[in-house]
Design goal:
With 209 residues, the protein is of the alpha/beta class. The protein is built from 6 helices and 8 strands, in the order αββββαβαβαβαβα. The strands form 2 sheets. It has a 6-stranded parallel beta sheet with strand order 1-8-7-2-5-6, with helices on both faces. It has a two-stranded antiparallel sheet with strand order 3-4.
Length: 209
């Protein structure tokens, strides 16, 4: 049992390092260095956590809005969980981006971004994104880039502000398990829960718009 435990911990550690390596060259922390892309994919999370505003959520939207306002992107897709009528991450994200002065017509909503895998695969298959910016915290961006690359997409990540302390440490531990799951999803060719029909994304300065 001890040897098995050591072996399992070793596999988790290897998966964590492997997925993390995908952010080595394509993860941007300085917004001035981010190359222009047509769109950003903002990965969802809950607006509130334990009765208080979720700073992971707020910082992701701050980062996406900043990309928009300095014209690093021409459209935004917000992707999150809307599995219940009383829980709607992407609609909240769109509303709060509008509150940050991003025009609503350039924000597309993915209601079926239940997991990072779903968000990434649907970004291309539903919204036509292939070469785009993923917006989330650094640990999450690495996993999204890994999944996107494994699905043949050209993706970079822009890091939203992260959290430290107990909350940050706890989420980093969860991320280790999530990265192992991402590797298994790639190995076993796991797909998203839903696909469906293609949806239009409106781009700033697009003559067809």
């Amino acid at each position: 049992m001890l040897l098995l435990g050591i072996f399992m911990v070793g596999l988790l550690f290897m998966a964590d390092l492997h997925v993390g390596s995908f952010g080595d060259d394509d993860l941007y922390r300085n917004i001035e260095e981010v190359p222009h892309k047509r769109a950003a994919l903002v990965l969802g999370t809950a607006k509130y956590f334990e009765g208080r505003r979720n700073l992971y959520y707020e910082y992701r939207l701050d980062a996406a809005a900043h990309l928009w306002h300095i014209q690093k992107i021409d459209a935004i897709v917000v992707s999150g969980d809307n599995s219940r009528k009383d829980y709607d991450e992407p609609s909240n994200m769109r509303m709060d981006l509008v509150g940050r002065a991003v025009p609503s017509e350039y924000i597309a909503i993915d209601y079926a971004g239940f997991r990072t895998l779903d968000s990434v695969v649907r970004a291309e298959n539903i919204f036509g994104l292939e070469d785009y910016i993923v917006v989330s915290q650094p640990f999450h961006c690495c996993r999204a880039i890994y999944l996107a690359r494994k699905h043949g997409q050209k993706v970079i990540g822009y890091c939203a502000r992260d959290l430290g302390g107990t909350i940050g440490f706890r989420n980093r531990l969860r991320e280790t398990l999530a990265r192992a799951k991402a590797v298994l999803d790639v190995i076993f060719k796991k797909g998203p829960k839903y696909l469906g029909k293609k949806e239009r994304v409106n781009y700033r300065n697009d003559k067809a718009h």
